[in-house]
Write a structure and sequence with these properties.
Blueprint: H1 6-59, H2 61-68, E1 76-77, E2 80-86, E3 91-93, H3 116-127, E4 129-138, E5 143-154, E6 157-164
Antiparallel strand pairs: 1-2, 2-3, 2-6, 4-5, 5-6
Length: 172
């Protein structure tokens, strides 16, 4: 004999099934919240770029680039901030790292060797807007993190805003 009555085996199985269901009921909403939260951040990044584009249109490029470069200004929301390149990959506005402004960064890869700025410029020229994934130093955490950036060409500049998350937009 196994030491269990036939009903005990069924009871144990039911207990394990209930525990498994409970785990799924806890884990799935947490995972869904993380995915939805990141989707909201992506939407926020895109919205911030659209607002910056409207600012360029109505206030002019020079005033817009000055505002984009203002720390804690209209387009700097902590980890979410707009930055801009010209059509050659020269940084023309950045609120977190003003030392980058004026530098041609098109041939500078991320830590994994990806020429993401070149990809941003090429895709902005061919598609006008989109997403590019890469790894970048998060100025808020001072760590290399996965970043996905929404970009939009506006005249002779490219407005960008990225989200620091481990997520890919390939196929979007």
């Amino acid at each position: 004999m196994l030491g269990y009555a036939p009903n005990d085996l069924g009871t144990e199985w039911r207990k394990r099934a209930v525990k498994t269901r409970m785990a799924f009921l806890i884990v799935i909403p947490l995972f869904s919240f993380a995915v939805l939260s990141h989707a909201a951040e992506r939407d926020d990044a895109k919205t911030l770029v659209k607002r910056a584009a409207a600012y360029v249109k109505y206030q002019g490029k020079e005033k817009a680039l000055a505002e984009i470069s203002t720390p804690k200004g209209m387009f700097d929301k902590g980890e979410l901030y707009v930055f801009a390149y010209d059509l050659h990959g020269v940084m023309v506005a950045h609120p977190k790292n003003p030392a980058l402004i004026g530098q041609n960064l098109i041939a500078v890869p991320d830590v994994e060797g990806k020429l993401f700025r070149k990809e941003i410029v090429e895709r902005a020229m061919s598609h006008g807007s989109g997403w590019v994934d890469y790894v970048y130093l998060n100025p808020e955490t001072n760590r290399q993190e996965h970043k996905t950036t929404y970009f939009q060409k506006m005249g002779d500049i490219i407005l960008c805003c990225g989200v620091y998350k481990d997520y890919s937009h390939e196929g979007d």
